[in-house]
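haha ok so turns out i had the wrong file open the whole time. this is the CORRECT one, sorry everyone. sequence first:
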Amino acid sequence: MPPDTLARSATFAALAAFTLSYIFIWARALRADTHCRPTLPALLTGFITNFFDTLGIGSFATTTSIIKFSRMVPDQLIPGTLNAGHTLPTIFQAFIYIAAIEVDPATLLLMIAGAVTGSWFGAGWVAGMPKRSVQIGVGCALLFASLVLFMRQFDLFPAGGDALGLNGTRLVIAVAFNTLFAAISTLGIGFYAPCMTLVGLLGMNPLTAFPIMMGSSAFLMPVASTRFVLNNAYSSSVAVGLTLGGVCGVPLAAFAVKSMPLNAARWLVMFVILYAAIRMLRSAYTERHNA
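then structure:
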């Protein structure tokens, strides 16, 4: 078996093990939870956000905006709900992209290892944050997400190069920053944009960003979500709805739609996210005033 095929098979096997471990832990927690029945708004949110996530818009910022507007969950539970709810749909996407796009196995595996490490420490930190700190963090994350969408509209991301992998100092830099991005992403900032920027700055082919960022997210999210679930720092009913809706939206986008004009949708999403960021930061200000 060629080395690339062997490495890809090993990645799939490891991802399957992470997935089964997370499902076991979450299922055990849900059995003891009498409030985990998903609602229709959560199901629709999961379907829509993961549908567009598969096409490249992202799911964390859009889901946060919908949750904030509809008041599905308290602000302090948003990070945990996002991670727990989007884990399985993201893993679904990772299997698709890792199988379809070529990337150096060593680079992929080391960057994934960094992401897993960062997510474990980041999730533990976020799960213990007070409500106002979460509001400020999520508000800043939404502002960052709207900036990223603005940059994508005008092709301001680094163009990248032709490399399919990294070595030496550049590989060390990539792993270090991937670890940092993963820790921060547990707050709800999203992992895709920072990872895509990093890949471009280091001279890699822009297409390699998809298996790297999807693979990293697919491994880091079960780890982070496990900590949120064990700390009961999430809304189980909304997370279940996001999951069930998401696993239906991903294959529809990946295999049926495949691509569609998204320029107008990105403008709309950008302004919605910006408005949600302002509301979240305003909530943090009100929280301080009330305190």
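The chain has one domain: 3-285.
again sry for the mixup
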